[in-house]
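Database export, one record per block. Field names are fixed; values are copied verbatim from the stored entry.
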Amino acid sequence: MSNYICMTCGTQFAAGAQTPATCPICEDERQYIGWEGQKWTTMGTLGKNHHNIIKTVDPNLTGIGTHPAFAIGQRALLVQAPEGNILWDCISLIDEPTIAAINALGGVSRIAISHPHFYSSMAEWSHAFDAPIYLHADDREWVMRPDPAIQFWQGETRALGQELTLVRCGGHFSGGTVLHWAAGAEGKGALLSGDILQVVSDRRYVSFMRSYPNLIPLPTQIIRQIVTAVEPFEYDRIYGGWWGRVVQSKAKAAVALSAERYIAAIEG
């Protein structure tokens, strides 16, 4: 029995004697089946030719990403907080060097994930650190490996301590979530956004899509919903889901300007 991992989206599935028949996440219109067809791997096989890079992004913030890039290629973020470290978003590969490096930084007390494309091997990460996983209940159907560690939260916000708050924005997925870190950006506040707020190549802006690879936009009312969800929070910086995708300053104004630009383009 193996927990097979989809090589296109990086999601790990419940244990089975054979590979799953399909990957529902990749069959959804927001993702895609790999150009060479559906392919699978396992944690052991993945670890033979990949390893994780762990490096400081900012004070009390560490990035964790797989090299060479695997599946979607995102990196996770470890927020070091007084009430215990939070792993934000997740990646497929976890191995003993990674566990040792993260334990040296204080371990992981809680895991929170923005949306199903980043669920990856969340159960393996949870077991390694004995950490609960917080997912929005609206995305329950996309969990391919159920686990008792998963806690589905409901509503619009969920506090994970004095400095950290999960905020449901919707958009890319119904339960699409960002993490507000009040102590981030040298105390000015930060958002960890995955690609719910996608930091684009011109890092003065973000964008919003139902599907990034298939270029399916979101309607105007959903863009306004996302902006409204984060409006009550103060933040000067946004950390996107990939290395280097950071709006370094004036991020709250950048979100408002980006939304105006997007809506103007959609509405013509």
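Remark 1: The longest strand covers residues 51-58.
Remark 2: Helices lie at 24-27, 43-49, 96-104, 122-129, 220-230, 251-267.
End of record.
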